[in-house]
Amino acid sequence: MDIRDYLKLSPVVPVLTIREAADAVPLARALVQGGLKVLEVTLRTPAALEAMRRIAGEVPDAVVAAGTVVGARDLQRSAEAGARFAFSPGLADFMLEAGPIPILPGVATASEIMKAMGSGQTAFKFFPAVPAGGVGGLKALHGPFAEVAFCPTGGIDVANAGQFLALPNVLCVGGSWVAPAKAVEARDWGTIETLARAAAALGRRTADPIGGVH
After folding, report:
1. Could you tell me the pTM of the whole model?
2. Which of 80, 125, 147, 182 is catalytic?
């Protein structure tokens, strides 16, 4: 699948920081049952790679994505653990070459977008979304880069996710609110499934060609 196809599978990509590998499968099942198929497992804990392996092996309906990929070794290890694609908070030279799995570079400026477009990339993570300009910033980028699509992440929650999803250049958003740390620690999978179901139901408003929304 093209990376854009993955990003279209559900409107919200849960950003997961999994501290206990044993939590990975029940957490993934709750999110998938709630309607969110693409799961970003961030490489922020020692359990992350094992969590990817378990989800990839035991939750067939989940699409595992690696998060916080900042080097070529991160990308290789994530691919070996079962990730189908990856997210990065920034843009680096290794992302401009073919790798073991596709990667969504993080961008916040027009210059970064132009550099990555030179290697044929037209889909990006807009990060950190709210501090980098939020909805207004993405509207401004749509003019010169109409063919580019984004998954904004950073500062997005249930209150503002719909505003981002209404934009014509947004395929999905990333956020951690669907799997709050306290609920994971309590292994409250029912609450997480409920949050996921609400996130999956987020509607899209019609966008006009110049970036306005109705």
Report:
1. 0.93
2. 125
